[in-house]
Amino acid sequence: MTDSRETILAVRKLKVSFSTPDGTVEAVKGIDLDVKAGETLAVVGESGSGKSQTMMGIMGLLAGNGTVTGSAKYRGQELVGLPLKALNNVRGEKITMIFQEPMTSLDPLYTIGRQIAEPIVHHRGGTFKQARTRVLELLELVGIPEPKRRIDSYPHELSGGQRQRVMIAMALANDPDILIADEPTTALDVTIQAQILDLLNSLQAKFGMAVVLITHDLGIVRHFASRVAVMRRGEVVETGATTDIFERPQADYTKMLLAAEPRGRKEPPAATAPIVLEGANVAVDYATGGGLFGGSAGVFRAVDGVSIRLREGQTIGVVGESGSGKSTLGRALLRLIPSSGRYRFGATNISDFSRSAMRPLRRQLQLVFQDPYGSLSPRQTVGEIITEGLYVHEPQLSRAERDKRAIEALKEVGLDPAARNRYPHEFSGGQRQRIAIARAIILKPKVVILDEPTSALDRSVQGQVIDLLRALQKAYGLSYIFISHDLSVIKAMSDYVVVMKNGRIVEEGDTDAIFEAPRESYTQTLMSAAFTA
Questions:
Q1: In terms of pLDDT, which residue wins out, 419 or 294?
Q2: Beta bridge partners of 279
Q3: For residue 294, what pLDDT is reported?
Q4: How far from chain centre, in Å, is Cα 273?
Q5: Structure confidence at residue 289 (pLDDT)
Q6: Listed residue (281, 284, 335) closest to 305, CA to CA
Q7: How many helices (H) and strands (E) does the chain have?
Q8: Out of the domains of life, which is the source (predicted)?
């Protein structure tokens, strides 16, 4: 059946390229796309397929070495080459974008209330204090708990999922005509995903807003999108109605994407395997209050009396909703943040170790961050980033030896060794996550805490990364704490599962027991949301 709705964004022969030390990289190779009023167009494909760069090119947000050519007309107005002042009148009001990595898009020096208010004040006028009511309304709409308290929080005080919801609130502030959502639920647990998508659905119905959904999560696409465009290596290989794409895919690549799912299980360690990392009665408190809109000071307990033991060769999966304390627990176990409790690394009691006392142990205790772009210096090449730890922990290595180690690490995570001469902004979100993993494993640590290490990856690459992590674990006897909201990945990766809610453990046990016969209603809700989508 022909869709008679008006085309409000017409993309023709769009090309995006980047100038690099290794030559010109063509990220998008002359694609055509149409976005119709009120529809949801999902743009899917593997990491590096050009999904995000297509939209960044349309919005005039490419990095300095990026070039866009072709045409992108919004209601007849050409956006490619449009002067910045005129473009700013469109983006942020008529066309808005939710970015994949919220921590890099939120200013760490300003409260979230101030940042949500900024586009309101810019496009509608008034003062920041006058925008307070609208900011509180938006925070409540996107599911931020206690909005009157959280309005004065800084980005680092929120979980990854909460930061993403702040970005959604900011994008919705001026009731846009087109909302470009770049992996809008990547950092969110399955129950909150449904709430956010329902919210976008209701807003779309109310305002007639079109949504361009960039995602690798085909489960979301099936339930949320009306049309799908499949991209591979900078080209559109297939487009069609969502039902047709899922039930009658034509391209072999589309069929491969639909069949991809994390598979297999790892062998659990022996019950007698030594304990390599232990935290007992771990508690983490954050001070709250103050800020632009005032508010009384207080204390928020993010982790409340958690105990965990990690054995050599074991993977403990930590699951729970956004804000449950998963990431905070991981940082506390590595002694990266102030906390109370008793800690041991192997036979060593590290409970009272200062920062300087912990420094020699850092090579053995590594962390892969949730937002890789936020932890990768934009001023350093990939080679410099992943070898940085070698300068500290193996200073005797020559430049050639460090370069050799960098090549080996990049190969291990499935990246071209030539990538070491490029910069982080030249890579997709999934590729940046693999760079972050390479940086962690180059020192051959004993313990790696992986905070949502596959959340930015498409399903096919998730499987590759899981296989990689298993192989590294087997080869080097690594122990993992694997933090994720993706229960299918947790099931494929973990020997033991810990379920957290409101800073506490509500259930824990062997992976099979947790997935096949969860005892607690909260765990049952998580499982239902994950496996009935």
A1: 419
A2: 308, 343
A3: 54
A4: 33
A5: 66
A6: 281
A7: 22, 20
A8: Bacteria
Residues 6 or more apart whose Cβ sits within 8 Å of residue 463: 260, 261, 262, 263
What pLDDT was estimated at residue 413? 83
Residues 317, 335: Cα–Cα separation, whole Å = 19
CB 312 within 8 A of CB 479: yes
What domain range is 315 assigned to?
A: 276-290+299-531
The rounded distance, in Å, linking the Cα atoms of 192 and 358 is 36
Same domain, 362 and 395: yes
448 DSSP assignment: E
Residue 207: Cβ within 10 Å count: 14
58, two tokens: 């349309």
Contact 378, 385 (CB under 8 A): no
Pick the closest to residue 372 from 102, 170, 47, 111 (CA basis).
102
The 3-state DSSP class for residue 315 equals strand
Structure tokens at 278: 């232990």
Residue 250 sits in the same domain as residue 303: no
Determine whether 432 is exposed, middle or buried from the number of CB atoms within 10 Å of its CB (0-12, 13-18, 19+): buried
Q: Identify residue 215 by its one-letter amino acid code.
A: T
Which tokens belong to 499? 């379920």
Question: Per-residue pLDDT averaged across 22-33, rounded?
Answer: 91
Look up the CATH number of the domain holding residue 439: 3.40.50.300
* 464-520 per-position pLDDT tens digit: 778 888 888 988 899 999 998 888 889 989 999 999 999 999 999 999 999 999 999
